[in-house]
Amino acid sequence: MLSTLASAADPTPMAAPKPLIEVQDLKVHFFTRDGVVRAVDGVDYGVNPGETLGIVGESGSGKTVSSLAMLRLVPPPARTVGGRILFEGEDLLTRTPKQMAALRGRRIAMIFQNPATSLNPIYSIGAQLSEILVWHEKASRRQAEERVAELLNLVGITDPLTRLRQFPHELSGGMKQRVGIARALLCNPALVLADEPTTALDVTIQAQILELLADLQARFHMSMVLVTHDMGVVARMANRITVMYAGRVCETADAATIFSAPQHPYTRALLESMPRIDQSYSRGARQKLPTIAGRPPNLLNPPAGCRFHDRCPEAIADCRRILPVETAIAPGHTVSCIRRGSPGIAA
Amino acid sequence: MGTARYIARRLIFSACLILGVSVILFAMINAIGNPIEILLAERPGMTDEVIESVSRYYGLDGSVTDRYFTWLWAILRFDFGTSIIYNQPVSEMLVTYGLETLKIQIPAILIALVVSVLISVMAATRQYSRLDFGVIAGAMLGHSLPGFFIGILLILVFSYWLGILPSYGAYSTRNMLMNSTLIDGLWHMVLPVGMLVFFNTATLTLLMRSSLVEVLRQDFITAARASGLPERRVVFGHALRNAFIPVLTYLGILFGVMLGTAPVTETVFTWPGLGALYIMAIQQLDYPLIMGETMIITFMLVGATLLTDIAYVAIDPRIRLA
Amino acid sequence: MDTPIVPEAVAEASIAVPLRPPGLWRQGWYRFRRNRGGMLGLGLVALVVLVALLCPFVAPFAPNDQSAMLRGAARKAPDWVHLLGTDRNGYDVLTRVLYGASTALAVGLGAMAVASVIGVIIGGIAGYAGGLTDELLMRFAEFFMVIPVFVVILAVVRLFGIVVVGTWLESIPNLNLMTIIVLLGCFEWPPIARMARAEFLRLKHAEFVEAAICIGTKKRDILLRHILPNALPSLIVLVALGIGGAILAETMVSFLGFGDPKAVSWGQQLHFNYEALKVAPWAVLSPGAAIFVTVLGFNLLADGLTDAFNPRLRR
Fold first, then answer.
1. What residues in B contact C147, CB-CB < 8 Å?
2. Which helix (H) or strand (E) holds B299?
3. What is the ipTM of this complex?
4. What radius of gyration do chain B's Cα atoms show?
């Protein structure tokens, strides 16, 4: 597949900076009793230093699994079965478990979706955060706690010294997510993977948390991968956006392009299904909120050809047969759709 | 301060439980029939005078409520009366025989706990592997083997066929092994403890493994790994303590029922403990001994429940001390 | 993606959705069928039931045939006449093991029937009524949880056996076994009551129940036709587990010598032959293995049912 890609137009623009992390042809499969589920099946994307990449897709599109794969933490029975993950030029998939552990939390950190379940319920906030610092930076318990308190302050938690002694169940959801963010930032990582960081929160808290993330990212000059199903969130946060569907990438472009000139039919459908503030969708109104008909395919037996063909308004006979390959149609804008000129692999 | 009040409340509740159970037991025994008639049922040829004096001697005269309060007051002073068949104070016998029972039960539970933790960690961290499958199957089989049947198999193999371990008793009657009471005692403990360890390990492993698997898939475990903590710390520090919470209840039951299941263990191995004593007491209709032992066993159960509740508070900060 | 992908979620998503969503039971059966352990348990339980029903036809001897003793063939090792040998009373071991299956099932089913009735009534009332009733009933259940069941049963069986001598009760066949069954039932209900309470409490506020109340369904119908059937799956798991436990308990009572001397039970066999373990181990091993198979069957069945009805709980 890589050779097909190379034969097409050069996907990287000339002056592109060297990406901090680059995922190439990543494949993560679940080996279940019923067969192999191809949750992530040949995915490419990259993140430049200081940039935020938004990965958008619906449930089951493989976006969370692919970000866990970057930490080599896909849960069994899933396994990363192919591809490369180049972090600062080195393939993470060939690292030893020990090297990998030294990277996690220190160079690459993660913010989880559900703050209620991602903190250990039986340890105090201070204990579980300082443990990480003690381990990575060989700091003393006291030093670690001071640094944790400092960070808690930074993520907007008042009275951090009291919070240190509290347990997760004593904090509100928004507060817990702030703790989760502080935990990710403890060792000043180069890359933060944020997996739906606001989905489990109240709408008002969501905005605060997003603002905090944007602020911290600029302050620490981190790169960020923001995984979400919410177009609104990426519109606000991301420099570039990758749209995923059924374990494959549909389209990658800078945020402005995705919103102003989306090319892939799935991206278009996603954008059209976003409610607009200047439109009325109530019963009897002229227009109904457009939805994407059908449901995502069964990844145990993915359809031949393009994964989206049976829900695609523009599908032609070839779409059932040919698996499209991502191709650059403009500098920094790649699409995988044969209707947009992508080459493909015949089934 | 909250903790002290909580413990005090649980203590009071436990006392109520024991009191309630004592009422139920006493009522039940008396509902079955007049204790003195039962006591003398299989000892024919009693004159009325003898019956009367025996009744007075064992405190079995007077109305049921009178008898209950007399009995309760005596129990509170750790006076369980005098055994009919042994003609000894029941309280002394409870201590002597109780120690023999604890001697095999306590080590068995502790060993089983350590072994099952190790097995569960090995299995749960390799979920879906052959080892894990083997552990589940083995634990399920072991859990379904009746305890006494394990004992019988152990005796057959190690005492009768291999002839290396004694099949009954706590001490040799004639020649002590290596002329040492200690070594001889330990030598006799091997099989009964082995049986209890086998059974307890199977059940504990079944619980602990599934609890650990459940915890290991939680977000906070992925988060701990994503923070770069070494696997050893993640499993033993973060997962195990959480996984232990549901197992605690069973562990409490295990300590609670160890006297309750002793009759079977001690019959299989002819062990001179509370269980064997209880069987003897029932067979011989030794009324004070039956009541005393039943109360002690209840006391253990309630005590274990109380300790479990306290342990929960210590291990899980989410439990509110209301 | 709303939840981190677990295999279950992946598999679930891949199941084609039929036009009419399958009911609770059918879904449960679908999941149960995939559980190898559960199916093995079902097979073992079916085997025991079959043996219990067919024992008069398949057993090589009559259950009370002690003629081997007269021939001097007691405690004989297995041979072609006595496939599992004879015991010290001259009984054919295989015959008695086969007949023991019906006793075991009678004990297990009988005890759990008693326990279920008490448990569902007490737990159901507690859960549905709530408030002070709930509090009182659950405290009552707690008392039963700290009664040392096993030793109390031993004592009661023994004492009761003396009291009935000379009364009309003595004419009841297998009175001793009945006593054990009823006692087991009377002590094993608290877990069922707790579960029933939790389920009634949950279902009381379920939308379909509130809808039924809205259209004026009678209270009796709400309890029996709307709430109880939906509470059954969780209760059945406990009952399956309890049957195994009750069988084991009866065996232990009999093993210790307090069983029904007239009943043909595995525990009785163990009791009578344990002294002769050294010379005739087959007479002990066979009933022991039968108990093991039966208890294993019910445990596996319960395990499979747990998976089938609460897939979230396990693997």
1. 21, 24-25, 298, 301
2. helix B287-315
3. 0.84
4. 24
